[in-house]
């Protein structure tokens, strides 16, 4: 048992899975990036590269019966919550073997059996869905929780105020996780967002935290407290995680943007604060993992990603005739 500077009682059994999950998200998305640029993927992808510590630090505390909602940048949340890389990649490839039978694609990956209520192409829509999921928990009187991941751009939608209001008023077991990655599409957050986002939630007098979103232990600590509180009936909490999107808003952006919207020096500076590299350094420094163990982990993840990519590529294309069957839960004649 080790206790680090953040007062986190950390065992190897807790820490190594955090690295493993971050690596899995990263390597899957690096493969998606390569396949996209090779012209293989049928649609666009918004990658989560650079933000992995947020999804992983939060989801490490969640059970399958807890629910999450995600955004258009949803692959990291899907995998961190226990979704299958094979089923997700096949979905992104538009294949029948995909998690939504190839009907949803990158922006709609969902697996209700894992509590993943879905990525969502509508900015901020997950907030209201999570509020409903958290209300459902109170109806069945369980200790489940519901987590909404959303961006700093989404924080400017009115639905944030509406859901903060209802979640606070009804003391719902909901955790708001705002991933401030410093951009809304191609607009730096500072040009479209007034004040500090976390202060908006403070007005509701719920527990709020502003954390370094590139530090998986900082996220893990804040999320652990919020989730435990919600499970015990303590109501909603808000976490603003400060992070950085290392890839473009979407992989295709260089093909249509006429000018750069950020300096490459800024990207490089944040690359130097890569959450995975930082955590590897921490684990080595604390004597928790050595080089050989890190390499073994990388090899294990590489094999999973290769298998998932081959599975996705080899699958049958989606069947358009299924559209009505998969759209409606119970279709009436
Ligand atoms: C309701 C709605 N408005 C606008 C858009 C177009 N749009 C897609 S992503 C995006 C930016 C979202 O920024 P943020 O919430 O910070 O997420 P990030 O892309 O940084 O992860 C916008 C405006 C949309 N999809 N939905």
Please provide a written account of the structure.
45% of the residues lie in helices and 11% in strands. The chain has 333 residues and is an alpha/beta fold. The chain has a single domain (15-316), classed as 3-Layer(aba) Sandwich (Rossmann fold), CATH 3.40.50.970. It has a 5-stranded parallel β-sheet with strand order 3-4-5-9-8, with helices on both faces. A two-stranded antiparallel sheet has the order 1-2. Strand 8 (208-212), helix 9 and strand 9 form a beta-alpha-beta unit. It starts with a strand and ends in a 6-residue tail after the last helix. The structure holds thiamine diphosphate. Thiamine diphosphate binds next to strand 6. The site of thiamine diphosphate has 16 residues, from strand 6.
H/E order of the elements? EEHHEHHHEHEEEHHEHEHHHH
Overall residue-averaged pLDDT value: 95
Largest sheet: 5 strands, parallel
What overall form do the CA principal axes indicate? globular
Briefly note the structural class of the backbone.
Answer: alpha/beta
What CATH architecture do you see?
3-Layer(aba) Sandwich
**Proportion of residues in extended strands:** 5-15%
**Uncertain regions spanning at least 5 consecutive residues:** 1-5
* CATH level-3 fold name: Rossmann fold
Number of strands: 9
Please estimate the helix content. Answer: 40-55%
Ligand catalogue: thiamine diphosphate
């Amino acid at each position: 048992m080790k206790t680090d500077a953040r007062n986190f009682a950390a065992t190897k059994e807790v820490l190594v899975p955090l690295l493993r999950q971050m690596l899995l998200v990263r390597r899957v998305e690096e493969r998606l990036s390569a396949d996209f640029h090779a012209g293989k993927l049928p649609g666009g992808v918004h990658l989560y590269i650079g933000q992995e510590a947020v999804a992983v630090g939060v989801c490490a505390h969640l059970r399958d019966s807890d629910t999450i909602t995600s955004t258009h940048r949803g692959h990291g949340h899907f995998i961190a919550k226990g979704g299958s890389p094979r089923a997700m990649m096949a979905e992104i490839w538009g294949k029948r073997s995909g998690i939504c039978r190839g009907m949803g694609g990158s922006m709609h990956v969902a697996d209700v059996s894992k509590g993943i209520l879905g990525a969502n192409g509508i900015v901020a829509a997950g907030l209201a869905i999570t509020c409903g999921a958290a209300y459902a928990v109170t109806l069945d009187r369980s200790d489940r929780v519901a987590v909404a991941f959303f961006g700093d751009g989404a924080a400017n939608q009115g639905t944030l105020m509406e859901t903060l209001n209802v979640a606070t008023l009804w003391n719902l077991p909901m955790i708001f996780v705002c991933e401030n990655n410093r951009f809304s599409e191609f607009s730096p957050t500072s040009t479209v967002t007034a004040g500090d986002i976390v202060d908006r939630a403070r007005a509701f007098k719920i527990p709020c935290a502003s954390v370094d979103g590139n530090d998986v232990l900082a996220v893990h600590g804040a999320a652990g407290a919020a989730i435990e509180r919600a499970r015990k009936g303590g109501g909603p909490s808000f976490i603003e995680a400060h992070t950085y999107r290392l890839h473009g808003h979407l992989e295709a952006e260089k093909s249509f943007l006429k000018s750069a919207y950020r300096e490459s020096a800024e990207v490089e500076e944040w690359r130097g604060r890569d959450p995975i590299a930082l955590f590897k350094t921490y684990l080595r420094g604390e004597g928790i993992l050595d080089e050989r163990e890190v390499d073994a982990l990388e090899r294990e993840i590489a094999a999973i990603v290769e298998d998932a990519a081959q599975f996705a590529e080899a699958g049958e294309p989606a069947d358009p005739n299924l559209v009505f069957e998969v759209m409606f839960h119970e279709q009436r004649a």
